[in-house]
Amino acid sequence: MGQLQRDGRTDVAEDDAENADGRTTNAGDAAVESGMERATETGGEFTFDDVTVVMGTYNEEAAIGAVLDDVDEVTDGRANVVCVDGSDDRTPEIAREHGARVIEQDPQGYGVAVREAVLAADRPVVVTTDCDDTYPMEALPEFLELVNDGTDVVSGDRITPGADAMPAFNRQGNRAFALLASALLGERVHDTTTGMRAYRREVVQEITWTENTGLSAELLVRPLMRGYDVREVPIEYDERTGETKLDPLAGGAAIAKSIVKVCLEERRR
Ligand SMILES: Nc1nc2c(ncn2[C@@H]2O[C@H](COP(=O)(O)OP(=O)(O)O)[C@@H](O)[C@H]2O)c(=O)[nH]1
Ligand SMILES: [Mg+2]
User: Fold this and answer.
1) How remote is the CA of residue 132 from the centroid of ligand 1, in Å?
2) Where's the Glycosyltransferase 2-like domain (predicted)?
3) CATH of residue 93
4) How far apart are the CA of 58 and the centre of ligand 1, in A?
5) Domain carrying residue 177
6) Residue closest by Cα to atom 20 of ligand 1
7) Nearest listed ligand to the Cα of residue 57
8) Distance between CA 140 and CA 82 in Å, rounded?
């Protein structure tokens, strides 16, 4: 998949070269996505100008300023940001002050928000994160580099480095979800519920997403089972700013159910 995409970008570069000779070409048609045009200008590699960072935001006024500042600092203000917001606090105002695009949505759960957010991204590389200051935006350059190496989905693995800041119950639960998914997938995955990933946008657009609390696991499992190039990279995980929006018991049960359902559906495809 990644190889095909890289080949596509090379073709565009050749068309542009022909154009420089004054011959008429379809370079404009070939470079349907402006991100592809930009990628050719930078030697076929995506830059942060090609990245949209997306998140669901639900009463995160204590954290959102720091998260968006980090995105700006790490990407030099070049990544754009989409927040799908269900807050009744100042979160959306703070997001807009930071230049983010805010899509308002009644709060209906994590996956309903994040699905809308990934589908609203308008650049060729889509990064998800939580809006709680737990995920290391410093890892964005590494994530982008892996996408440029041909990886379709880069998944931040919190569990392997220890996730000391995660509540112990959640850590054990996340280990169990990863074991369950690994057994069903037939290959070892380490963190199925991480909120921080980078996707080539085609991946999120080509697949129909059905899960809510289990969306994060679904966003890993379906691409894996369809043969996309998915890679986990270890990331540090910080203590949350503000209150969690997920009930660990009910949420955990929903995630386990989603993993089984999605694996069975993918096997039957
Ligand atoms: N818009 C919207 N965002 C949500 C909803 N539920 C959770 N979120 C956001 O999704 C992200 C993940 O939720 P979080 O509470 O961090 O879950 P945890 O990481 O499992 O503790 C956070 O940025 C939340 O603000 C919702 O119903 N609507
Ligand atoms: Mg979180």
Assistant:
1) 8
2) 52-207
3) 3.90.550.10
4) 6
5) 50-268
6) 246
7) 1
8) 16
